Amino acid sequence: MSTLERTLGLIKPDAVRAGKSREIMQLAELSGFQLLAKKTLQLSQERAEEFYAEHQGKPFFPGLVGFMTSGPLYAMVLGREDAVKSWRGLMGPTNSLTAREQQPTCLRALYGTNGTQNATHGSDSSASANREIAFFFPELQPDALEGPEATATYLQENLNPTLLKGLTELAREKPSSNPREVLRSLAFWLLENNPNKPHVMEPEGDASQPMVEEPDDD
């Protein structure tokens, strides 16, 4: 039985500017990856330095940070068996010029510019993938893909306290002896007291001003 592994994939600003984001995503899916999550964003200098902290002090670091903050990028959570190794294989050599010589059909050969502006990024290990996914997708909840221990920890820290409060409230009110009514009452309580329930906030400033849309890569 195959195991679904996750990895982080980035489509860097050079490929986004060239309008190749959707094409790269389609090639990823044709190569067997599931696109589990995606978002477009632009890194601040502080966030880029944090993401590439392991390279701080190296000669190429300022140029790397400058490039990664130069425009929007796409962050993706990619899933398939052996995802980390497979995505890195699909990307090809780090230097796009080398990639064109050694692996002309890889992503960096097709869409990269040079050694630094190489179109894509991928995690180099499962541990890096978990850390990098959390960096770009802190809102994602742990699931079975991360193993039973992570799931148990999440349930213990996040679900159990809310469920305990609901059961305590249910015992206090004693709505009915009918099991279905009891479950209905608990369900309504959980809906009303969900800590992740979205709240509508009034927009600041002049509400007549149009919203700024996220940049498209076409």
From TrEMBL:
Catalysed reactions listed for this entry: a ribonucleoside 5'-diphosphate + ATP = a ribonucleoside 5'-triphosphate + ADP; a 2'-deoxyribonucleoside 5'-diphosphate + ATP = a 2'-deoxyribonucleoside 5'-triphosphate + ADP
Disordered: annotated segments: 195-218
From what superkingdom does this record's organism come? Eukaryota
Where is the protein found, in the record's own terms? Answer: Cell projection, Cilium
GO terms assigned for molecular function: ATP binding; hydrolase activity; nucleoside diphosphate kinase activity
Pfam families assigned = Dpy-30 (PF05186), NDK (PF00334)
Q: Which GO terms describe its cellular component?
A: cilium
InterPro entries, per database record: Dpy-30_motif (IPR007858), NDK-like_dom (IPR034907), NDK-like_dom_sf (IPR036850), Nucleoside_diP_kinase (IPR001564)
Coiled-coil region(s): none
Q: What is this protein called?
A: Nucleoside diphosphate kinase-like domain-containing protein
The protein's organism comes out as Apatococcus fuscideae
Q: What is the lineage of its organism?
A: Eukaryota, Viridiplantae, Chlorophyta, core chlorophytes, Trebouxiophyceae
